[in-house]
Recover the amino acids of this structure.
């Protein structure tokens, strides 16, 4: 079984796109060993990250992540389980909110409705800001 989870967090004040690039690089380097895949959305203020893998891999990553100074207020929005991965090729895909083609792949995936709703809410918040 593959576990998945979606969480949001608030970026630390000094975080810029260079930091986000570094986070993606670290993730792409580490996640294959952890056998974790997923995507990360950053809207300039908050992160929304989807991760999938074994239950143990997710807990261990969550432990590391929670202590990362580049964000705070980690809030788990939804957890799910399924037979297989939704994003087997994404070591950690950065998805931009403005880039509709990137988001299309996410919207087309068979995500639980609760996760889809959270992602849409995240995008709508951004547009309203
Ligand atoms: C929003 C956010 C998402 C992150 N996602 C991942 C991830 O998917 N995989 C990962 O290994 N590290 C991720 N990190 C970084 C970890 O917190 C940690 O800094 C990193 O794994 C340490 O890598 P190192 O031991 O190779 O230096 C993320 C950090 C932030 C702030």
């Amino acid at each position: 079984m593959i576990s998945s989870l979606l969480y949001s967090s608030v970026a630390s004040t000094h975080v810029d796109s260079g930091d986000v690039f570094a986070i993606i690089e670290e993730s792409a380097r580490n996640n294959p060993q952890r056998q974790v895949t997923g995507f990360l959305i950053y809207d300039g203020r908050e992160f929304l990250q989807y991760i999938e893998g074994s239950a143990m891999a997710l807990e261990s990553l969550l432990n590391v992540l929670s202590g990362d100074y580049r964000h705070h207020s980690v809030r788990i929005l939804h957890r799910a389980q399924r037979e297989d991965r939704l994003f087997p090729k994404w070591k950690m895909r950065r998805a931009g909110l403005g880039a509709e083609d990137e988001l299309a792949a996410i919207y087309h995936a068979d995500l639980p409705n609760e996760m889809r709703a959270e992602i849409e809410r995240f995008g709508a918040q951004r547009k309203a800001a």
